[in-house]
Design a protein that fits this description.
The chain is mainly alpha-helical and 75 residues long. Helices cover 76% and strands 0% of the residues. The longest helix is centred in the C-terminal third of the chain and has 23 residues, at 52-74. The protein is globular, with a radius of gyration of 12 Å. The relative contact order is 0.15.
Length: 75
């Protein structure tokens, strides 16, 4: 399975975002629409690559979060 760099960067950002903000697993799961076991695996296993569907959800979640942060900075 080939992954493009953007997917990997985005997963890295997602892991960092969760670690830095220390928001609860439930919040992220609900907002991003990922199941808790998948979420735990993503956070615990650096080599684990979620399926395309989950990566898309994470990408969408991160875009939304980064937009939110940008708006806070600009306001």
């Amino acid at each position: 399975m080939r992954l493009d760099n953007n997917d990997l960067k985005m997963l890295g950002k997602f892991r960092m975002y969760v670690k830095i903000t220390e928001i609860s697993c439930t919040n992220v799961c609900n907002e991003a629409g990922i199941t808790a076991p998948t979420f735990r695996t993503i956070m615990q296993d650096e080599r684990y690559i979620p399926t395309k569907k989950v990566r898309d959800k994470i990408g969408f979640f991160m875009d939304h979060k980064l937009t939110e942060l940008q708006q806070l900075i600009n306001s």
